[in-house]
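Example for tutorial group B:
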C-alpha cells in the first residue's frame, strides 16, 4: 500500500461495494468484467472492449469532486498527526500519521435493457440510508475505518429518443457522497540504546584521588 494513494483505495472500495450491493438485481457476474471506474461517456465502450461485444448489464462509477471537508477538519491532526505503530523489522518508528478529511462525491450509473432491473436497483438505493450506509476499509491493512455514505436523488438518463438508431436500453444515475480521509505517514529513526556513564567522586575514601567510573546500557527492556 505504500505506493498506492488512499484516494485510489476509496475509489476501488466503493466500486466493490456497489458491485456487491447491486449484482443480484442486475444479474452481474464479476467485479472486473461488469463494472468500470470511468465516466458515463466512455463506460459502454470500456465494458464492450472487455467483453468483446456491446452488451448489458453493467455498472460504472466516477469521482466527480474531491474537496476538504471543513466541518470535520482538525488542525492538530493535519499538522501534528498522531502516534502509530513501532516497526521492529527496520528499527524505526512510524512516528506519526497525518490525516485530512475529504468530501468525495461520486456518480454511478446502472445500465440494463430491462427497466424492472433498474427499479430494483433504485429500491435498494433508496433503502441504503437505513441499512448500514458505510464503506468499511483498512488503513495499512490493519486499522479499520468506517466511512459514512450519503445519498441524493435518482436521475433517469435513458436515451429513449435514440432507440431507433442505437437500440433501446435504460440508464439510471445515482449519487453517493463519502466522508473520507486522506493519510500520510512520517517515518524517522528512533533511539534504541542509551549508554549512561556515571563518575563517582571517592575523595575522602582510602584513595582521595580515586574517581570510579560505571557504565550502564539502557534499552527498551530496561
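The residue assignment follows.
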Amino acid at each position: 500500500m505504500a505506493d498506492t494513494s488512499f484516494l485510489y483505495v476509496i475509489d476501488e472500495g466503493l466500486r466493490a461495494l456497489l458491485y456487491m450491493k447491486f449484482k443480484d438485481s442486475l444479474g452481474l457476474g464479476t467485479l472486473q468484467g461488469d463494472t468500470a471506474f470511468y465516466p458515463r461517456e466512455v463506460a459502454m465502450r470500456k465494458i464492450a472492449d472487455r467483453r468483446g461485444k456491446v452488451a448489458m448489464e453493467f455498472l460504472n462509477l466516477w469521482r466527480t469532486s474531491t474537496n476538504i471537508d471543513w466541518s470535520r477538519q482538525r488542525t492538530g491532526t493535519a499538522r501534528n498527526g498522531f502516534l502509530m505503530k513501532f516497526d521492529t523489522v527496520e528499527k524505526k518508528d512510524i512516528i506519526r500519521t497525518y490525516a485530512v478529511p475529504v468530501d468525495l462525491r461520486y456518480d454511478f450509473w446502472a445500465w440494463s435493457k430491462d427497466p424492472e432491473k433498474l427499479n430494483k436497483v433504485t429500491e435498494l438505493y433508496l433503502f441504503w440510508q437505513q441499512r448500514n450506509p458505510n464503506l468499511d476499509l483498512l488503513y495499512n491493512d490493519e486499522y479499520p475505518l468506517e466511512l459514512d455514505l450519503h445519498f441524493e436523488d435518482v436521475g433517469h438518463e435513458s436515451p429513449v429518443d435514440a432507440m431507433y438508431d442505437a437500440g433501446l436500453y435504460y440508464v439510471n444515475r445515482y449519487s453517493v457522497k463519502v466522508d473520507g480521509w486522506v493519510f500520510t505517514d512520517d517515518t524517522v529513526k528512533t533511539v534504541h540504546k542509551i549508554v549512561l556513564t556515571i563518575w563517582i567522586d571517592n575523595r575522602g575514601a582510602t584513595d582521595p584521588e580515586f574517581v570510579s567510573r560505571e557504565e550502564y546500557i539502557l534499552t527498551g527492556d530496561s
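The first strand starts at residue 35 and ends at 36. Compare this with the pattern of hydrophobic and polar residues in the output above.
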